[in-house]
Specification:
Number of domains: 2
Largest sheet: 10 strands, mixed
CATH architecture of the largest domain: 2-Layer Sandwich
CATH class of the largest domain: Alpha Beta
Number of strands: 10
Structural class: alpha+beta
Helix content: 25-40%
Shape: globular
Radius of gyration: 19 Å
Order of helices and strands: HEEEHEHHHEEEHHHHEEHEH
């Protein structure tokens, strides 16, 4: 049975995330790396509209160039819900893509999480957040934090989450003209894999290194150039394995000054606000 209240909402946000730090503290026997990282959302979003389809089919209104429909994470998420619950309802998914692909902002994972959360309501499936997080993890390591919906301290492979409150500062994000291959970075011989574990208090006090930054900068000179350009205005950091780099600012005016200067110099840049609650979660709450 479809929930008509949720069918009436036209667009749902799929926000970007930043990794405010990333430490690699070990490696499992299966090759996955053990991490410590901090996620925070920003108010830069893809927007997704869900159109009911009486045929029971799951489809995309428009495919993303280079991504076959069957591999699109929104399609996979919707079909996963149907397989898990036996739901026979259909949906046509319309994605307004604003987040740069291959930038480390979690766009595909966020799109998948929005699909899981909204269709769970729209189709009245009544799956718990914990169950949706578990399903999301089968789609990608970053999907659970978008389902979780709060700024989080993360451990394990990124799936063990603990809510954390962080200053909601202004952010300028720069996307270099490259796509970082995450698998290649995590496979790199010289990647740091033995960082000492820290506590949340250590992060709050200023320990926010990213163990991938040296290897990414070596393999992708345009990322290094972006870090140098942004560092003229504030401390420049890499989100995840990139390619996006970012800096935080205490005021909108300071962020705008950096953003405008970088845009004039030809950089693909974005200005946004850090958020401790996902815009998607805020919108879901307002529809209750």
């Amino acid at each position: 049975m479809q929930n008509k209240q949720f069918m009436q909402v036209e667009k749902w946000p799929a926000p970007a995330k930043l990794n405010l730090m990333l430490r690699i503290v070990g490696r499992r026997d299966d090759g996955y790396h053990l991490l410590q990282t901090v996620f925070q959302f920003i108010d830069l979003c893809d927007w997704i509209t869900f159109h009911p389809d009486d045929s029971g089919r799951v489809s995309l209104q428009k495919t993303i160039p280079g991504v076959p429909e069957v591999e699109d994470l929104t399609i996979r998420a919707a079909n996963l819900l149907k397989a898990e619950t036996g739901c026979q309802l259909g949906i046509c998914i319309e994605v307004e893509k604003n987040l740069p692909m291959g930038g480390g902002l979690g766009g595909g994972s966020s799109d998948a999480a929005t699909t899981l959360l909204v269709l769970n309501k729209m189709w009245d499936l009544q799956l718990s957040v914990e169950k949706l997080m578990a399903l999301g993890l089968t789609l990608g390591a970053d999907v659970p934090v978008f389902v979780y919906g709060c700024s989080a301290w993360a451990e394990g492979v990124g799936e063990k989450l603990q809510k954390i409150n962080i200053d909601q500062r202004w952010v300028v994000v720069v996307k270099p003209e490259c796509h970082v291959n995450t698998k290649e970075i995590f496979s790199a011989k010289n990647l740091t894999r033995n960082s000492k574990s820290i506590k949340i208090a250590d992060f709050i006090e200023g320990q926010h290194q990213n163990d991938c930054i040296e290897e990414v900068s070596r393999q992708y000179p345009s990322v290094k150039e972006a870090l140098i350009a942004l560092s003229q205005f504030a401390e420049a950091r890499l989100t995840g394995t990139g390619a996006c780099v970012f800096a935080q600012f205490d005021s909108e005016n300071l962020a705008l000054e950096a953003y405008n200067s970088l845009k004039k110099r030809g950089w693909q840049a974005y200005i946004a606000k850090g958020l401790n609650e996902s815009p998607l979660i805020s919108k879901l709450k307002s529809c209750k």
